[in-house]
Amino acid sequence: MTNQTSTSREELDANKLTALDEEALFGGRPPVGGTDSKGKKVKGHRPSARTRARAIIKHTILILAALIMIYPLLWMIASSFRPNDLIFREAGLVISSVEWENYPNGWSALSEPFSKYLMNSAIVVLGCILGNLVSCSMAAYAFARLEFKFKKIMFVLMLMTIMLPIHVIIVPQYIMFSQIGWVNTFWPIIVPKLLATDAFFIFLMIQFIRGIPKDMDEAARIDGAGHPRIFLQVILPLMVPALATTAIFTFIWTWSDFFTSLIYLTNPSNYTVQVALNAFIDSTGESNWGALFAMSIITLVPVFLAFLFGQKFLIKGIATTGIK
Q1: Are 277 and 296 in contact (CB under 8 A)?
Q2: In terms of domains, do 18 and 167 share one?
Q3: Which conformational region is residue 322 in: left (phi greater than 0), alpha (psi within -120 to 50 degrees), or beta?
């Protein structure tokens, strides 16, 4: 009997909590067909005609805006299956004549198979990701946890580099790398990432580390851990969201980078995908647009997958670091 009484009380309390939650959700008024905090059924509140009209208008505008933004991508997908002479004649998404050969032709249209350029981009992206993860995390730990001379001045100088356009430093960088003999190699793109040159990621990780209680550092220090051990065994495992955000952004930005690869890579066998796509455009007007669009779709697939599978870490990393 006692068990039944306690069970019924728990169910009643649960119903009251549910009712209170529903009332709070609907602005103090329970939903249609719901119950109030006392468990009594009430008629509830129906949204007014004006509220429904506003919701319909808002969603219609958002859907139209989304269609306008995604239309160029849909048109490019459709154009990748059109013959060259129909690509710019048909502005719609309906394909009157399908050209399946655009994909195999585009794959082998250049001096190297397109897989070669995908591999080159993968090597560059992997090197840049590893470089940013290692160097930026170490620099962020130094700024967030260590005390040294001119720390504030160096921090301000580091932040100022965010406002420095790449076009300002590309000429001295090219001269330096040319004298070293690194032009037409991947090193000018990868090595700067090993030197913590991306201030945005350093700042992002600093904000994340500052959110980690220093008591954890003190506890590790009592156990005899120094800064390397604290960084590797305490801080770094907690930085997974920030590290994932850095990796995703680095992947997308490096994979999509055209300017830097165009400057340093002159040998067609070293082209990344962005420079290879540019090779499809012929100044004489004989460009193979169908093959270009087909390879562009293939190039977009890794970026889409990276964002799709890393979206959770991306949102969490930005939210927990205070970057808005």
Answers
A1: yes
A2: no
A3: left
How many Å separate Cα 304 from the centre of its chain?
9
Total tally of structural domains belonging to the chain: 2
For residue 234, give the DSSP letter. I
- Judge whether 221 lies within some domain: yes
Name beta bridge partners: 155. Answer: none
Q: Which residue has the tokens 């051990």?
A: 229
The verdict on 123 and 266 lying in the same domain is yes
What pLDDT does residue 258 have? 92
Domain assignment present for 196: yes
Residue 280 shares a structural domain with residue 238: yes
Residue type, 298: I
- Establish if 194 belongs to a structural domain: yes
Q: Cα torsion at 198, 306, 296, 132 (round to 10°)?
A: 20
DSSP per-residue letters across 143-194: HHH---TTHHHHHHHHHHGGGS-HHHHHHHHHHHHHHHT-TTSSHHHHGGGG
Residue 109 and residue 238 in one domain: yes
pLDDT score, position 37: 55
Give the three-state DSSP class for 31.
coil
Contact call for residues 155 and 203 (beta carbons, < 8 A)? no
Residues 98 and 111 grouped into a single domain: no
Q: What digits encode the pLDDT tens for the residues 272-289?
A: 999 999 888 875 667 788
CA 109 to chain centre: 31
Which carries the bigger pLDDT value, residue 86 or residue 39? 86
> Do 153 and 122 reside in the same domain of the chain?
yes
- The pTM of the full predicted model, rounded to 2 decimals, is 0.77
pLDDT tens digits, residue range 176-207?
999 999 999 999 999 999 998 899 999 999 98
